[in-house]
Structures are given as C-alpha cells and as structure tokens.
Amino acid sequence: MTTLESLYGQAVLLFAALVLFVSFVMLAQSRVTTLVNLFALQGLLLALTTALVAVMQNSPHLLVSASLTLGLKVILIPLLLHWLILRMGLHRTTDEVNRPLQLLLGAASLVVFSYWITLPVVQLSALETRNIIAASTATLLLGMLLMISHRQALSHVVGFMAMENALFFSAVVATHGMPLVVELGVAFDVMVAAVIFGVFFFQIRESIDSLDVDRLSRLTETEESES
Amino acid sequence: MIALYLLLLIPLIGMPLLGLAGHKPWAPRLNNWLNAATLATSLALAVIVLRTGTLISDDKYWLVDAFNVYLIVLTALVGLTTGIFSGPYMAHEEAIGRLNPRRLRLYYSMYQGFMLAMYLILVTNNMGILWVAMEGATLATVLLVSLYRTPESVEAAWKYFILCGVGIAQALFGTILLYFAAAQVLGAGEEALEWTTLYTHAAEFDPTVLKIAFVFLLVGYGTKVGLVPMHSWLPDAHSEGPTPMSAILSGLLLNDALYAIVRSKMIVTQAVPGHLPGFLMMGFGLLSFLVAVLFLHRQRDIKRLFSYSSIEHMGTMTFAFGIGTPAATFAALMHMTTHSLTKSAIFVTVGHAAQIAGTQRMDKIRGLIATQPQVGWGLLVGTLAIAGFPPFGVFVSEFLVLVATMESYPWLTLALLLGLAIAFGGLFHHIQPIVFGQRPEGQTPVRANMMPVFVHLALVLLLGLTIPGVLADWFDEAAQLISGGMPQ
Amino acid sequence: MTWLVNLLQVILFVAAAPLLAGWIKKLKCWSQNRMAPSILQPYRDLFKLLRKETVVAENASWIFHTAPYVIFAVAVLAAAIVPLVAVAVPSARMADIIVLVGFFALARFFQALAGLDIGTAFGGMGSSREMTVASLAEPAMLMAVFTLAVSMSTTNLAAAIETLLHEPVTIRPSFVFAGLALALVAVAETGRIPVDNPATHLELTMIHEAMILEYSGHHLTLIEWAAQIRMMIYAVLLANIFFPWGLAETLTPAALGWGVVAVTAKLVALTVVLVLAEAVLAKMRLFRAPHFLGFAYLLGLLGMLTHVILEVG
C-alpha cells in the first residue's frame, strides 16, 4: 500500500523510480552522446519531480529550484557537453565497460546499501516524500560508480553532474529544498565547474591527444624509466 | 561590521581588476596592495573581536569568533607574504617562457578569487554557504594547478578536480543530512543551517542521523584536508602548480578545510553519545600521519616531499582535534599557525631552489648554500623547523600534542614519536645533499625576495621561544569554544 | 457449474492460441506491406500436419516419442492456471505462479532432451542455446513475478489479480519495472526478435526451431500448438496481471462476455506493440542474449527494490 494516495504522490514516486532507472541505464551506456542525452533526461525527470513536490506542498521556492535545475541541468550543461563533443569529434568514441552485467548487479547492491544507510533518516522524517530518500542516495552512489567504471573524461564529467543531480534530489525529498541562497550558490558552483571542465578537455586533449583518462598516468609513486 | 564587509569586498573588487590587468608590470604591486589592505582589515577585525567578543551580524549570515578570527589574520598574512614573493617569481617564469600574459592575468585574478573564497569559508555562519565557498576555492585554484600546461600538470589538475569534486559532493550530502536533522527540531528555513543556532540546539538533534552526517562531512571535507586515503590528489596538485600556488594551497586551504570539519564536530559531539566523532578524526589523522611519514622517503620531487609533509602535519592536527581535550585543542590550533607559516616559507624557498637548478628533482639539485646562501640556508632552517626541531614553534606545538596524547591515550604517543622520528630522518636524508656540497657548473643565483621567508621563520621562532600573551589568550579562547574547557 | 466454465475457458484458451499466432502473422505482414495469409491459416497448418506421415529416426528413444505429448499436456495445464476471461476459476486457484514457471521448465526440459535425442548437430545446438537463454530468463521471470507476489502478499495469480482489482487504480513503479522485465522475458522465451527470429530458415541462427527440426506429422502438430499456447500464455499474463480490468470476477454471462471482449482488446493492443518492436529492432547475436536477459533480470530486481524502498510504509 502506498503512503501517498493522491495522483501527485504516485507521479512523484514514479518519476523518482524512473530517475533511478535512468542512472542504471547510464551505467551500461557506452556511447558518450547517448550518455549526455540520458543525463539531460535525468535532469528533466528531476525538475518534474521537484515541480510536482512544489505543487503538492505549496512551496513556491521549490518551483524556483525546479526551473533552475531545468535551465542548468537539462538545457545549459547538456548543450555545453554536446558542443564539446562536436568540437572535439567525440561522437564516435565509445566507452565500453568491461563487464556490464557485473557492474549493473554491483549497482543494484549499492541501491540496497543506500537503503540501509538512510533507514534512520526515513524513519525520522515526517514528509510524504521520505521513501524517496533511499532512491536519491542510490543515485548519488550510482553517479560515483559511473565515474569509477568509465575511462573517457566526458563520462567523468557526466558522472560528476549526475552526482550533483542526486544531491539536489536528496535535498528536495529529505527536506523540501535547502534555503534558496544555498541552492543558488550550489547552482553557481556547478555552472562554473562545467565551464572549467570544458576548458580542461581542451587542455587534456592538447597534452595527451586523447580524452582517455586512463592514459593520464605519468605521476605515480613508483619510479618509471622516464621521469 | 564594516571591517567584515571590507574584508570580503577587497578581494571581490581585486578579481576583475587583476583579470583585466594581470599582465601589466604593475600588477604584482596591485596584488600586494590589495593583500596588505586585507591584512589591515583583518587585524582591525581581530581587535574588535578581542575587545567586544564574538561578532554575529544582525541577519545571522556572518560570524566572527575567537576560532576563526585568528585564522583570518593568518590567511591574510600568508596571502600577503606569498603575494610579495610571487611577484618576482612569476616575472621570472614569464621571462623563461613558461607563462604568457593571458595566463598571468588568470593567475592574479584567481589569486584574489581564492583569497575571497577562503575568507568566505571563515566568516560565514551558514553551513551551506561554507560548502559553496569550499567548492569555490577548489574551482578557483584548479585552473592554476595546470597553469604550465605540461602533461603532468594537466593530469594533476584533473585529479585534483575530480577527487576534490567527488569528496566535496559527499560533504554536501553530509550538509543536507545535517539540515534534515536540524529541520526536524527547528523547522525548515535558513535557521536550520546557521552554525550559531545549530550549536545552541545541537543536543536536541537525532544522534543517528548526525552520526551519518558527520561521517559524510568528515570524508568530504577530509578529502580537501588531504586525509589518507583521500589524499592522492594532494602531492600531485601541490607539486605541479606554480610555487605560490603550492604555498597557499598547503598553507591555507588545508587549514580551512580542517576548520570546516572542526565546526561540524562542535555541533555533532553535543548530540552523539560516546566519542565517535573524536575517534573517527583520530583514526583518520593517525593514519594520514603514519602513511605520510612512510611515503616521505620514496619521493624524488622536492615539492612532493613537502606535500607529504603537509599531509603528515594535517594528520597530526586532525588527530589532536579528535582527542578533543582543551590541551589537545590548544596544541592543534598552535600547530595550525606554525605549520601554515613554516610550510609556506618552505615552498617559497623550494620554488627558488627549483628555479636555480632548473628542475624539481631532488637528485639534480645540489649545492644550494654555495650558489645562493639565502636560499640554501632558508631551506635548511625551514626543514629544521618543519621537522620539529627546537626552538621552533612546530616543536612546541608537536610537543604539546604529545603531552595531550599522553594525558588521554598514552599508548598512542609511541606511534606519534616513531612517526616524527621517521619523518625527521626522511626529510634530512633528502635535504642534506641538496643544501650542502659543491656548487654545480652553470648554476647561478636568481632574483629572489627572501624577505617573506625570513619573516615567517622569525615568527615561527618567536612562537617557539615564547607565545605572546595576546596569541595565547586567543588560543585559549578558541580552545575553550571548541572543546568546552580551558587549557592549562 | 464453475468447473464447466473452467473447462470452457481452457478449451477457449487452447483453441484461440493458433488464432493469436495467425493474427500476429497478419500484423507482421501488414507492417512489412506484404499480403498476409488468412487469420485461420495456422489451423489449416496444424490440421495438415495431423494427416501427414510421422517419420521418426531409427535411433530415437522413448523421449523423442513422448516429448510432444508431455509438452502439449503441460501447455494445456499451464493454460489452466492463467486466468483468461474469469478470475475465480478453481484451476487458477489451485496452483500458483511458481507452478507455472515449473511447468514451463518441465516442457523446456523435455524439449531440450528431445532435441539432443537423435544426435544431430543442429538439434544439440538448438538445445544448448535454448538452455542458455532459459537459464537467464527463468530468474528474470521469477524476479518479476516475485515483485507482484510481494506487493499482493500471495503467489497465487487469481488471488493476486483479485486483490489488484479491488484496490484503487494506482501507478506503481515496481509494476512498471516488473512489467518491462516480464515483457523482455516473454520475447526471449517465445523466440521473437530480438532474441530469435521465428521466420528464419537458416539453421545456424535458430534457437527454438533447431530443437524441433526432426519432428514431423502429428508430433509436430502438438509441438507447434504448444508453442502457440505458450505465446498466448505470456501475452495473457502481461495483459491480465498489469491491466486486470475487464476480467470477470463473477461467473455471470454478462461478466464473462465483458471478459472476452476485454481480453481480446488487450491482446490486440499487446500484439501491435510486439509487432512494432519487432519491426524496429534487429535480431541480436547470440552472445548478446545474456546481456539482454541480464537487463531483464535487473529490471525485475529494480522492481523489487523500488517496491521495498518506495512503496512500503
């Protein structure tokens, strides 16, 4: 039996589950263009969820956050990433994961882990969206897994942004949004981070002629033949 | 109040100014004047706080108390001296072709930006803005680490960005959980993120949620402090960036991140029974300390050597803050000061040494005293200071840490002593051939302003011989604020 | 009385299975702009096969002879478990969904053995491929139905559907995922694109067809019919578990009539979706089948997780 009987509540639950699902699909994805599109989809679902919660709870500042997410995570940052892909000719690179099935099952166990970790929070909360806290924490951990399992620098950026998505999601469902000034600050940081990432791609490209981050391995503790 | 706003306003104006004019020959002087103005403002602020007690702004956005005011002064001081050093240093780098005017502009404007972020971290009363400023500090410096555009520096900057980004995301999650726990009691809204309000009501918060929040905060901000095992970005970032960058990253940013952890600890310890936050900090601190002293020996690059020394000292400080007794807190606060001054001085000297020898590899740098006595002796004295030789201040603070450990956890003193001995051996093993010996062919002195180094080292010596009453009172007050008791 | 309705429902199920196959064929041809055979053509094919001579290899064992009967009998029994028109039938109440999965496993077991029986290369190849697909499809299917079972606190299909009918209409994320998982498993188990091409005549690309290459005559009738019944079972499962409205809860003629109309409509919609998917997708290479089914398993797992995390409490 669900705690939320109203249609809004069901829609929020469904969108939250879809956000988690999109994170899983991102993990198994090998094409960078699709990865960026999936990230935009995740942002869109997130913005919709926030808007629904805002309507349900009558909190207008959440609507501002929702539109901020929409503008930043669904439009601006994916556009920036797509521009980078075009500019650097990355649309043909693939980021094959070695063992997708094991990765996905590991991701499922991360979901269980995050459920366990957030149990005290869920039990304490009186909000209707409290069940979704575990899903948002899981999305955070899945974003981290995305960064760990992929080798292309672009996938790292998408993973980082997915983590920021998940953090925003956590804030919305656990506490109905952080104070607006904090949200604005975080959004500003994310925007600057995205721009700096873009600059970095050019620098990495210049120095090692590819964006495969595994090749950035000159600084190690062990002594190699060349300095 | 005005002093506070001025403190933030000066770097804010400096950023675009230097962004436009950073390549002009008078840019370093402008930078120095800006930093001097900030130092004066911070001293004024310190005097106000000393006279009238904790300063909280009316809208509860800003907080200046005994703990952060001396950190503000320290930040301003190190910022000024490093700025004075960086003027001729960067000019030399441009002359030998490692930099161009555009990068110089980026460097100077981000220098002010970084200072702004650090002041923001220190004076904000809002835990969320603290996070924003911390991330801002990372963003300001990340492009500076890769300033030289070599493959190694790009790699170091990328690692720095990604690792600190992931770490800081954990810290944001911890902040959200903290907000959640507070909102249960205080209601949603900005009040639930204000440190002062959180501090007074902390005992009412749910302990389990706070425990989880603290773990995330410790891991997150601990990444920025350089605690093992989240430290792997630190040696790379501090060694590949330009030397002034290494100096202020090592000397200042690590302190601010530790400040954030201690502020969080102050809230969490009131609600969580037992000593879990303290034990966690002690564990991470001790681990960092031991791993760093062992890694010291393997280093080939002189800046990496001192970066590991930074990790070692930050580990000691975290450990001391973790113990939590007033004596340990006093020791940790003093260690923050002495380490900051000494490490920035060392990095300045190392920068000049690298310039003289043309490389950062330790087996290629030789005969510094013979080449340029100021640099050579500065490096030797600095290393003595950082290794904990009496009568320097680092010796005193480390001694105080040992005393505090003996009072509370006597069997850990052995580990600390062992580590200190290993660090001592490692540092001297590497530095001795560098400073002594014959001057190699073709090695010429460089234009160097060693005044900042000597000022820092003199201050550290002073602190070692006698702690001025003002400073001791400061530390006492801060220790009382943090640990709830007066140190003896 | 209820037993009579039950018997009629099973007969309807078994008799309508070739009709569904013919309808799917028709839809596929329309989607490819071809002339379609009559919708009754499968009946004619089955009847034709009945009259043909049954040729059996010399070294065939009793397994080869009995497998078609076992497979067909099991298919009919499985059809008795799944509510087609009415929910409250005794045979549906007697056995639960795990028995259904067990029935499928039994049929598959005999089919694979029969493929291996004569010792031809293609038969063995088909059997091994079928087992590969099945070993991954079965957990996925079980995971999907467990989600349903945990939500409704029972593994009995009839009871679960009845509970579902009495609740207000809610969109559950766990059902969305479980439904997707079941759809993927259905595609794999019935040998449709993208796992297996039912219209292929190239033995090396066959999975299901390769096992039955040696069968002829009335044996083949039984096997083909059983395959069509299986297709219908999966379709009815998908339609009636996730969209149960229209099922007759009482056994009055009006309710039963509505039930027939509802299930027909649902099956038509489902087959349209199936054919569209087949038109858009290409057949995967065999080594990708585990990835496909792993994804189905993951969806089932996700459904279970979202149920526990999002919908409880």
Task: Give the helices and strands, then pairings.
The complex is a heterotrimer of chains A (227), B (488) and C (313).
Chain A: H1 7-28, H2 32-57, H3 60-88, H4 100-117, H5 119-124, H6 132-149, H7 153-175, H8 180-208
Helix pairs in contact in A: 1-2, 1-6, 2-3, 2-7, 3-7, 3-8, 4-6, 6-7, 7-8
Chain B: H1 2-21, H2 27-52, E1 55-56, E2 63-64, H3 66-95, H4 101-123, H5 127-145, H6 151-186, H7 195-201, H8 207-225, H9 233-240, H10 243-271, H11 276-296, H12 302-323, H13 326-357, H14 368-371, H15 373-387, H16 393-408, H17 410-435, H18 451-465, H19 469-483
Antiparallel strand pairs in B: 1-2
Chain C: H1 2-31, H2 41-51, H3 62-81, H4 90-94, H5 97-117, H6 121-152, H7 157-166, H8 173-189, H9 208-211, H10 217-242, H11 253-280, H12 289-311
Helix pairs in contact in C: 1-3, 1-10, 1-11, 2-10, 3-5, 3-10, 5-6, 6-8, 6-12, 8-10, 8-12, 10-11
Q: Report the end-to-end length of chain B measured between terminal Cα atoms.
A: 33 Å
Class computed from helices, strands and strand pairing of chain B: mainly alpha
Portion in helices of chain B = over 70%
Number of helices of chain B: 19
| Mean of all residue-level pLDDT scores of chain B | 86
Question: Could you characterize the architecture of this molecule?
Answer:
The complex is a heterotrimer of chains A (227), B (488) and C (313). With 227 residues, chain A is mostly helical. Chain A has eight helices and no strands. In chain A, helix 3 (60-88) packs antiparallel against helix 7 (153-175). The longest helix of chain A is centred in the N-terminal third of the chain and has 29 residues, at 60-88. Chain B is mainly α. Chain B contains 19 helices and two strands. Chain B has helices at 2-21, 27-52, 66-95, 101-123, 127-145, 151-186, 195-201, 207-225, 233-240, 243-271, 276-296, 302-323, 326-357, 368-371, 373-387, 393-408, 410-435, 451-465, 469-483; strands at 55-56, 63-64. A two-stranded antiparallel sheet of chain B has the order 1-2. In chain B, a hairpin with a 6-residue loop joins strand 1 and strand 2 (63-64). In chain B, helix 7 runs parallel beside helix 10 (243-271) and helix 16 packs across helix 18. Chain B is globular and about 70 Å long. The two termini of chain B are 33 Å apart. With 313 residues, chain C is an all-alpha fold. Chain C has one domain. Chain C contains twelve helices and no strands. In chain C, helix 3 (62-81) packs antiparallel against helix 5 (97-117) and helix 8 (173-189) runs antiparallel to helix 12. The longest helix of chain C has 32 residues, at 121-152. Chain C is globular. The mean pLDDT of chain C is 87.
